[in-house]
Amino acid sequence: VITVNSDDLILEAFKCMKDNKIGGVPVVEGPRRKLVGSVSIRDIRFLLLRPDLFSDFRHLTVLEFMNALGSTLPDSGGNGLVKPPLTCAPDASMGSVIDSIGSRITHRIYVVDGDFEVVGVVTLRDVISCFIHEPPGFCDSYLASAMEKLEDKGDADSSVENS
């Protein structure tokens, strides 16, 4: 599982997500990689839209970012902390994972062991792909077919205009 440490810079966390083409990372602490939070690529909007919170964002750690972010959220319970990320046990059923993801506006649930060490992640995309099977190259073939139809339509339209 790709993780970031709570004392890493937030800009490094966003770079990690970009480099790995993922939408979120668990935030961990210590040698046991204990889960302490989560950062999503969507959270970058707070760096852009709330410069008052992050005047020194180039030196801001992930934990400082999460704490500042938590202070602005209505559901933080007044403690200034972001809600803990969704978790499940390694033996959780698919039904309970779907219920958990559906109960909050999130795209991932972290799989943790008894010590809260991150051992996996299940994304909304993983759940959907359990129910939908796309043969290899399906999307590419579909898009190529759609493009051909559009090109054919464009050719037919220009033939009519030229006549």
Write structural notes for this entry.
The protein has six helices and six strands. Strands 1-2-3 form a three-stranded mixed β-sheet. Strands 4-5-6 form a three-stranded mixed β-sheet. A hairpin with a 5-residue loop joins strand 5 (108-112) and strand 6 (118-123). Helix content is 42%, strand content 17%. The chain has a single domain (4-152), classed as CBS-domain (Roll). The mean pLDDT is 81. The protein is globular and about 55 Å long. It is α/β, with parallel strands linked by helices and 163 residues long.
Please sum up the structure shown.
Helix content is about 40%, strand content about 15%. The chain is built from six helices and six strands.
Number of strands: 6
List the domain count as a whole number: 1
Indicate the radius of gyration in whole angstroms.
21 Å
CATH class: Alpha Beta
What is the averaged pLDDT score?
81
Can you identify the CATH superfamily?
CBS-domain
How do the strands line up in the largest sheet? 1-2-3
Q: What is the H/E order?
A: EHEEHHEHEEHH
The amount of beta strand, in percent, is 15-25%
Main beta-sheet strand count, sense and barrel state:
3 strands, mixed
| Residues in helix, % | 40-55%
Uncertain regions: pLDDT < 50 for 5+ in a row? none
The end-to-end span amounts to 61 Å
Structural class: alpha/beta
Tell me, what's the shape?
A: globular
CATH topology: CBS-domain
If helices are DSSP runs of H or I spanning 4 or more residues, what is the number of helices?
A: 6
